[in-house]
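User: Teach me something about this protein's shape.
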Amino acid sequence: MMIITHLYQHILALTFAVKEINNNPQIMPNFTMGFSIYNNYFNPVQTIQASMEFLSSQDRFTPNYRCDFQNNPVAVIGGPNSNIYLHMAIMLCPYKISQLIYGSTPEENINAEDIFFHWMFPNGAHQYYGILQLLLYFKWTWIGVIYLDVDIDKTFVSHVLPMFSQNGICFNFIETVHKVKVSDDFAEYVNEEIQLYHTVLSSNATVIVLHGEIQTTMWLRRMLRYAEFEELPMKTRGKFWIMTAQMDFTSDALQRDWGIGFLHGALSLAVHSTGMLGFQKFLLTHPVSEKANGFLRDFWTHAFNCFFPDTRVKDICTVLDQNFEEICTGEEKLESLPGSVFEMSMTPHSYSIYIAVYAVAHAVHAMHSSTSRHASMNNRGERTILNWPLWRLPHFLRSVQFNNNAGEKISFNQNGELISGFDIVNWVTFPNQSFLRVKVGRLNPDAPSEQFFTICEDDVLWPKSFNEVQPLSQCNEECNPGYYKRKKEGKPFCCYDCCPCPEGKISDQRDLGDCFQCPEDEYPNDKQNLCIPKIINFLSYEEPLGASLTILSLSFSSITILVLGIFMKYHNTPIIKANNRNLSYGLLISLLFCFLCALLFIGRPKKVTCLLRQTIFGIVFSVAVSCMLAKTIIVVLAFVATKPGSSMRQWVGEKQAISIVFLCSLIQATLCTVWMATFPPFPELDMHSVNEEIIVQCNEGSVIMFYCVLGYMGFLAIGSFVVAFFARKLPDTFHEAKSITFSMLLFCMVWVSFVPTYLSTKGKYMVAVEIFSILASSSGVLSCIFFPKCYITLMRPDLNKRDQIIKRVK
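Assistant: First, the predicted structure itself:
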């Protein structure tokens, strides 16, 4: 017979609760609570037999017949395995006896008989959701699963594991632990266990979820024991165990001296419990007398490795097999036992039994208070509950509410499930075969959803096999920022390759499924794991390029003013008066504005500057080119008019020159007016042209109108060039045909090269190209036309005489 010494605490918890209730007159006044204990040996047949014995008189196996009126059954506390309640229900539900089950709850209740069941175990869905949250919290996405070959565990596989998959958890393996049957070949069963052992320890899943029952740790210890007999490299690989609340630490006599290091650092769930005051003191004062029943004597014998002198003959073989040498006195202390044999702290299963007893007591008290008229008196004058309608007790159990001696509220929901949560327990083992259950977290269904799962990670003690740091359990290493996950063909979705992000995208976290674009005002860094704010880009006065162009603009403007001053000072000299002095003044003033309008292109573009800069530039340049065109036309007409009988003299004069300038400039002004009235320029932020910059620029509005303005200036320049080219050989010392020819040639070369250069640049360099073209073409006109005259006026005044003109003409 296998003795599981840990289960003795369940009996002591039951005894402790009954003793407290009987000593408390406020709970069950005028009544005394008693109990009977039946062993089901984790066996369906034994469970049914125990239920039949419960329905019989004491010490008689006569089901459905009771003659001891003082010992009337009120309720049954059964467990801890999941199959117990089904076999109990077969016998007890027809008698409408309330049954309180501890250990686990079924996924699907048993419908019509539900009312007689009360589960001293919270809703199992909360446990499974909590395990999922635990896996996700520590990023354990690649796990193994081991479950027992029982109905509740099969339901766990079919209903719960798909939920895990939907939330990103993958399974390296899902293995079943088969139950040993009498008809099984034991050697075949051992081979199955060894094969399972190889599967588990050779897997690359570090975290293993073990869904079992109270005695499953005995199987686990036996499986891991194989590692001590096989020289396999895989056995050195550590495994991290997550155990369900149905499980508990148990062992038999054979495993007494086996190591428990596999539990160190493991996490398990447990029904939320609190330490009961006085329980340990109760354990310290609980010796076994020589008259104790067989079960207590068996426990004492296996727990303390001793035997009682009056051991019966049928127990001698057991004693000899165990090699018990010392004699049991009955005064041995439970606290002297290692934790692997017996625990002094109340376990969660014992706590469930404890509050189950209290729940029955409070329900009986409530039922007695409401149905006292049904009570009868026995021969001793004591009240009995023989005539109480026991079918009403489940209703009182459903509505019972009380506080345990730690002040926590105990109640059931409408399905008969205990309203409570789960504790997350961290196991800490010691070399002396003792261990501690350290509560490091909580699953609280009554808390807000975001506080349902809480854990103090700093309190968790990790296994030594992982160097006491959090283990990793993933199919492959996480992808670093700058990479994204790409699924491997034919593998679970948790297995993937890490691929660099495409150009222009980033991933700023580990293990992202895809890369993403940075916001418009940011750009990826070189490692593509961070978005960097883009630099605001425009041609400013502070930077070297803007400052240089500003200096050039002001310098050429100053030179133009100086030339204008020279012309005004020497305005009566022949070289100044030649070729229409007023047109020269107009040309110089327009060139001055050309140089100054370049400043409108420097600095942060605004609405006013965007509207003015292209229009002012277009109009003043048109005035300048029109002045040169008028100069050339007037020179040609003047020579034609000097021929005898010519009728062109009426076209030579000041008015005609002004008319040419006005007409040509008016056309450009009209184009600019239409442009401003239809699609005017406006400031904008260009986020996309340059990857690392935000270009603050003027959108020209209508590109067609912009090029029309430029095209018209080109048309005027070409016209001036053609006319000047044909007039270059006219016999006059001071006429400007050759100078205009060269200046217009330079002008056309600058603006023809401007277009492709302008279109191929971005940002401030595009603006710099236009400013340079303005300054270059304007300075070309200024230098070709006015510098020779200034030179003669200032350096060679001897040539600036009328007789020189006449001499050259002759």
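Now, about its shape. The first helix runs from residue 8 to 22. The chain has four domains: 5-123+338-411, 124-274+422-466, 483-533, 545-809. If you'd like, I can walk through any region in more detail.
User: That's plenty for now, thanks!
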